[in-house]
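[stage:ingest] chain + small molecule (2-acetamido-2-deoxy-beta-D-glucopyranose)
[stage:ingest] validated
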Amino acid sequence: MWLMLSMSYCIVALVLSKDIRTPNSYTSIFREEQVIFSSVFNITSILVPADSTKYIPADISDIPSIFFTISDPRLDGGSCIYVLEGLAAYEVLEGGRDSTADYGSNKTIYFGAKDGLYKYDAESLSAKKFGPFKDDIHQLQKGNNTDAIFILSSERKIYKIEKNGTIKTLIQSILCAVEFVLDTDNNIYYISCDDRIPHIVRQDGSYIRYVTTAGEDFKDIKLLRPAFIMENCVPFFADGVLYILYSNGTSEKKDFYIRERPSAYSVDATLYLVAALNGKIYEFNVMEVLLKSMFGVVSRWPSDVTKIIMSIIESAKDSVYKDWTNILDH
Ligand SMILES: *[C@@H]1O[C@H](CO)[C@@H](O)[C@H](O)[C@H]1NC(C)=O
Ligand SMILES: *[C@@H]1O[C@H](CO)[C@@H](O)[C@H](O)[C@H]1NC(C)=O
Ligand SMILES: *[C@@H]1O[C@H](CO)[C@@H](O)[C@H](O)[C@H]1NC(C)=O
Ligand SMILES: *[C@@H]1O[C@H](CO)[C@@H](O)[C@H](O)[C@H]1NC(C)=O
Ligand SMILES: *[C@@H]1O[C@H](CO)[C@@H](O)[C@H](O)[C@H]1NC(C)=O
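[stage:predict] done
[stage:export] C-alpha cells:
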C-alpha cells in the first residue's frame, strides 16, 4: 500500500511541477526515444493486458507482452496479429484483427479474426480456434467477471458470445456500429454508423443517449477501453481532446489535447500506456518515471501524460480514488 500512496503523491507532484505552456506552443508527447516497435504498415489495435490484482509488476523492468495488429493489404484477411515479447515481435495469427483479455487475474488472451474467435497459446506463441462461429470479426472485447466476449462483425452488428464460445446472441438494440468498447461494468459504448456519435447500451439492456453539449460537432471520435481502475465510464478522444463518457450518457471534457491521431491505444494497465502512430508503437511507462522520481532521479517527462493519468484516477472507483489521494491529507 505504501508504494501506491507514494506514487499518488508523485503524480500530484509531477502535475504541480508541470511546465507553463502558452496556448500556441505544442510539444508532442510522441518522442522517438519512446518507440518500442516500428513497421511500414499501420497498427490498428494494441492490447497490454491488465492485471487488476496488482499495480506493480514483480520486476519493474519487466515490460508486459503487448499484442498488436498490423494492417497489410497483401495478407489474407488484410491483417496480422503479433506479440511483442521484450523487443522481439512474433507473428501469432494471420487474418487476426483484434485482441482482448479479462481485467482480472485470468491471463487468457482472445483474438477476433476474419473467421471467428481464437485463444492464445503462450507456450507455442500461436492461436487456437475458440468455439464454432466463423464470423468476420473487426473488434472484440472480453467482459469483466463473466465468460462473455462481445464482437463487432463486418456487418457492423454486435454479438455476445458465451458458454465457452458456443452461444451467440445479437445485441438487438444496436443497429449498426462503427466501433465499440466495454467499461469494467460491461456496459457497451459504441459509435453509431448514422450519426457517428457515442451511444450506450447498459449491461441491463437499457439504451442511453449521449448527452451533447452546445457547440459539440465532433469530426473524429475514438473510444478507448478504460483502465482497470475506472468504473462506469470510458475515455474517448474527440478531435484530439480527451473526454470521459459516463454510463449515464454525460461526458466530461478534460484538459488534454493531442494534435496527432493515433490509430490505436491501450490504457488498460493504468500505469503502462501504449499508443500507435504512423506504424510505430510508443510506450509511456508511468511506473518507471514515478519510481525514478521517488528515488530522486530527475526525469524529463511530458507533463501532459500526467494529465491522462490524473483523468484516469479521478474516474476510478471511490475506494481506489481514496487510496491514491489519501496521502494529500497527511
Ligand atoms: C495508414 O492509414 C492512413 C489513414 O487511414 C492511410 O491514409 C494510409 O494509406 C495507411 N498506410 C498504410 C501503409 O496502409
Ligand atoms: C481462464 O478462463 C478460461 C475460460 O473461462 C478458463 O478455461 C481458464 O482455465 C482460466 N484460466 C485460469 C488461469 O483461471
Ligand atoms: C470448451 O471447449 C473446448 C473445445 O471444444 C473443450 O475442450 C473444453 O472442455 C470446453 N470447456 C468447458 C469448460 O466446457
Ligand atoms: C469487475 O467486476 C467485478 C464484479 O462485478 C467488480 O468487483 C470489479 O471491480 C470489476 N472490475 C475489475 C477491473 O475487475
Ligand atoms: C452522470 O454520472 C456522473 C459520474 O457518476 C455524475 O458525476 C453525473 O452527475 C451524472 N449525471 C447525471 C445527469 O446523472
